[in-house]
Every structure is written in C-alpha cells, then in structure tokens.
Amino acid sequence: MSSSFSNMSTLEILNLNFNFIEGQIPKVIGSLINLRVLKLRGNKLKGSIPLSLSNALRLETLDLSYNSLHGNIPEGISNLHNMNGLVIQYNQFTGSIPLSVFNISRIEVIAFTGDSLSGSLPNGLCNGLPILKGLYLFENKLHGQMPTSLSICSQLRILSLSDNEFDGPIHSEIGRLSNLQSLSLGTNHFTGTFHFMNTNTIVSYYFRILFYYTLIARIIPQEIGNLVNLVKFAMEDN
User: Fold this and answer.
1) Which residues are paired to 80 by β-bridges?
2) Angle at Cα 132 formed by Cα 40 and Cα 229, nearest 5°?
3) pLDDT by residue (tens digit) across 40-94?
4) Is 46 exposed, middle or buried (0-12, 13-18, 19+ CB in 10 A)?
5) What is the SS3 string spanning 24-73?
6) Checking DSSP bridges between strand 215-217 and strand 189-193, what pairing results, if any?
7) Which domains does the chain possess?
8) Is the pTM higher than 0.85?
9) Contact 112, 93 (CB under 8 A)
C-alpha cells in the first residue's frame, strides 16, 4: 500500500477487499481525517494495526479480516467514537481485548473471530454498548465466566462465544435478551444446569442455539417446545 494515500485528504471510503496486497498498513492512513470506511479484507497484509489509525476520528467501519496481521489490538481504537463496525477476524492477533473497546457507544458489530486472543471479558462489558447487535468472539483462547452484564445488551441479536475456554454457568440473565436470534456457546467448559431463557421474550423469526461440547448437566428443559421458530438445536457430546 502506497504512502501517497496521505495526499487524499478528502477520501471518505477506501475499499481494497480481496486483492493480493502485501506489506504493512501505512501509518499515513491515520492522517485521512475524512475517512469513514476502511476495508482491507482478504489480502496478504502483515505487521500490526498502526497506532496512527486512532487519529481517523470519523472512521465508522474498519474491516481488516482475513490477513496475516499480528500483535495486540491497540488501545487507541477506543478513540474512534463514531465506529459502528469493528471487524478484524481471522488474523494472528494476540493478547487481551482492550477494555476500552467496550466503551465505543455507537458500535453495533464487534467481530474478533479466529485470532489467538486471551484473557477474560469484563463484567461491565455491555455498560457502554447500548446498540450492540453482534458479538463474534469464537475461535480464540478467551477464558473465565460469561459476564452477567451481557443481559444489558438489549439490542443483541447474535452472541457467539464458541471454541474458547470459558467456564462456569450459563447465566439465566441471558434470557432477558429479547432480540437474540443466534446463540452459540459450544466447545467451552460450561458446567451446571442449563437454565433455558424465557421463551415469552423470543419474538424473532429465527433462533439458533448451539451448545455442543460443553458440560451442561441434568435435563433439557421442556420449555424448548415453545420455540416455534427454532431452526437448529444442537447439544451433542455432553
């Protein structure tokens, strides 16, 4: 990627998805003060996310998925207060998710799937995410318990925490998510009794539940029979 992008001061959308671009993301990207959309999905980019990107304060969508980027997710991303989509899936990022990411009040989608992120999720995770609709964190190395504060994300439609190292109970508070459409918690270490969510709150057309490869005890509750729009229910290998 050429550093001459810095001359395009009025550029608002930069979409270079699915090419064969190599090298690093140039630091001058952060000088594009009018940039709203940056999509570099499906290339061969390496290196880390430049810290200067936090200066692109108008940025709304950042998609760096399917590259070979590595290192930590920089804390400075939380400065992007206009961000509504943060998608950096299938790279080689390590370390923990910066807690400040969960304070971007306009964000609707957070997708960190298929990296090597570790650490736990903060219990106040949803306090700063009033309009979050999709949280994709599967295929990482995250651990600890599922935060009870997830129930505050009232607009959440998709919650995917599969293929991590979470443990402890699946909290019944998740039943308050009346807009939830897809719940995927498989291949973790959840234990205890599965408290099914309040089926009276499920009004969506489509509801998917995947709990495979967990350690849920006792019985499958009868309330599952009330899920008239259920598409798939999988609990194998328990």
Assistant:
1) none
2) 105
3) 999 999 999 999 999 999 999 999 999 999 999 999 998 999 999 999 999 999 9
4) middle
5) CCCHHHHHCCCCCEEECCCCEECCCCCHHHHHCCCCCEEECCCCCCEECC
6) parallel
7) 3-234 (3.80.10.10)
8) yes
9) yes
